[in-house]
Design brief:
Layout lengths: L13 H13 L4 H4 L10 E2 L1 H11 L1 H22 L3 E15 L9 E16 L5 E13 L9 E2 L2 E9 L6 H67 L5 H36 L13 E2 L12 H11 L1 H23 L3 E11 L5 H6 L7 E10 L6 H67 L5 H36 L9 H4 L1
Parallel strand pairs: 1-7
Antiparallel strand pairs: 2-3, 3-4, 4-5, 4-6, 6-8, 8-9
Helix pairs in contact: 1-3, 3-5, 4-5, 5-6, 5-8, 5-11, 7-10, 8-10, 10-11
């Protein structure tokens, strides 16, 4: 059943309608409702807005791919958490009972007990260094008669800092940077797949309108052909026409009926294509109902400037930006591998204060007097004797970096070629649409004039049928040129990376 009025000039441009529709579709959708399986549309006649909403909600592949953003965000958080603040508590007790042979030991058997309770606060740095503040509490008791302070409390406050100066220096920052790049790459990939899903759904929607209009044109042509056949049969019965004219009219009806069957097949195929995009997997009822598009296509091309389009594409196209991010990620890997080839040179510095007393409170209170302190500093050097495996890893990372740069160059070339083709399709599509509309109007005028001549006996059925076929062909061409122009503009926007402009995607790509 065909009940749509298609291909009439609307009041708004296609892209304006497309953008406003998708803004309303995605504006208030959160992640939970975004992936919920819901009916694609509620009314028999559905809009492009509803089709896009159904495709986004009910596409499991896109839903699964979108989770890559969340996974990448978790990996970034894990990388950052590796360099957080850590609080540790260490306690222990040690007892030693041993004989002694010296009278200076204060007894024949020494019984010594030492306890410790240490509280440490450590901050790992992205430079791969570490800053630590340790408060150590020691308690020593003994049975030696020569020990003047028993029990002995030995609190100690220590500030320490360690830092690799060559090998592995700042590799933590590289690790966090790579995780951040992976998160950006996941968002770009999701955006690219979302644009493709929206473009596929839009093209399927307009294709369905196109084949339905072709079906409607053939139905109208069939009505005209049958009316002509009836008129010819009446004229033949009255002796005003030869039998060949009736045969020609019947042949025209049969040919139109065959074309109409083919058009019905194309409508069913187009409906199935759109159903696969917008319906949930379990929506069995939706596969039994006709899909009736409600929107009216309108293609109003604007004057385009290819250098400007190319500039925008280089800045906005997700797959090209992803290639540039891949270069940066490979560069981080190369820097990390290069750091592994350097000598190991590590700096360690520590300083602190300590006290000794038979009372814990007094020992801790005297720490602030800074009477007993210690300072230490040192540098350790490690040089590999043989060729380290890190050298091979570094050379491999350089090759991977060069490979990513070549791929980015190839992606830019492909971008240029794709844009030129899409840009040309939009320009030629506009001219083709205008020419097809002119041809359609002229074919209609020719048919009307030939029908008038036939009624006056100045023409034949063959001429009328010829002009009728010409009108059918030009109408179909005008129909196809309009839809092709719309699809060409969609493809150009997708390749340019601006197809989703105006949509609220913060909840989706966050």
């Amino acid at each position: 059943m065909v009940n749509i009025a298609c291909f009439q000039t609307g009041r708004r441009g296609f892209m304006g309608a497309f953008h406003s529709a998708t803004v309303r579709v995605l504006g208030g959708i959160g992640l939970a409702s975004f992936f919920a399986l819901q009916p694609a549309f509620a009314s028999p006649a559905f809009t492009l807005e509803e089709a896009i909403a159904g495709a986004i909600r009910n596409n499991p592949d896109f839903a699964a791919d979108s989770l890559d953003c969340e996974l990448a965000k978790i990996e970034l958080k894990r990388a950052q958490d590796r360099y957080g603040l850590v609080l540790s508590l260490d306690s222990g007790i040690n007892q030693s009972v041993r004989p002694t042979s010296s009278s200076l030991s204060g007894g024949t058997r020494l019984d010594e007990i030492s306890d410790n309770l240490d509280l440490a606060l450590k901050q790992s740095l992205v430079s791969n260094g570490e800053i630590g503040l340790t408060f150590a509490n020691g308690l020593a008791t003994t049975n030696s008669t020569f020990t003047t302070i028993n029990p002995a409390y030995t609190p100690k406050l220590t500030l320490s800092y360690s830092q690799p100066l060559l090998r592995d220096a700042w590799t933590g920052a590289l690790l966090v940077r790579k995780a951040d790049l992976a998160s950006q790459l996941a968002r770009l990939t999701t955006r690219d797949k979302l644009m493709k899903l929206v473009a596929d759904t839009s093209c399927a929607y307009w294709d369905l309108i196109s084949v339905r209009e072709a079906q409607a044109l053939l139905e109208r042509s069939l009505v005209t052909s049958r009316a002509l056949l009836q008129a010819n049969m009446a004229k033949e019965a009255s002796g005003f026409l030869a039998k060949i004219d009736v045969v020609q009219a019947r042949a025209s009806v049969a040919a139109t009926e065959a074309d109409l069957l083919d058009a019905e097949r194309q409508v069913l195929n187009s409906e199935d294509r759109l159903r696969r995009l917008i319906l949930p997997a379990d929506a069995s009822a939706g596969w039994l109902e006709d899909l009736i598009p409600a929107d009216k296509p309108d293609f109003r091309p604007k004057k385009l400037d290819f250098p400007s389009v190319r500039k925008v594409a280089l800045e906005r196209r997700p797959d090209y930006r992803a290639a540039l991010l891949e270069i940066e990620s490979r560069r981080c890997e190369a820097d990390e591998a290069k750091s592994g080839t350097l000598p190991g040179l590590n700096l360690k510095v520590s300083s602190g204060v300590t006290q000794l007393s038979d009372r814990y409170a007094k020992a801790v209170g005297d720490l602030g007097a800074l009477q007993n302190y210690f300072v230490s500093a040192g540098v350790s050097l490690e040089l590999p004797v043989s060729r380290p495996s890190q050298r091979d890893a570094y050379e491999k990372s350089l090759l991977a970096l060069a490979q990513s740069e070549l791929r980015a160059s190839a992606a830019e070339r492909q971008l240029f070629n794709d844009l030129r083709k899409a840009f040309r399709n939009v320009e030629i599509g506009a001219k083709r649409m205008e020419a097809a509309q002119v041809a359609k109007d002229l074919a209609r005028q020719q048919l009307e004039a030939e029908m008038d001549k036939l009624n006056l006996g100045l023409s034949t059925n063959f001429q009328v049928i010829t002009y009728q076929k010409s009108l059918d062909e030009t109408s179909l061409k005008a129909n196809n040129s309009l839809v092709d122009g719309i699809k060409a503009e969609i493809e150009l926007k997708r390749l340019e990376g601006t197809l989703l402009d105006g949509m609220n995607l913060s909840e989706v790509l966050k």
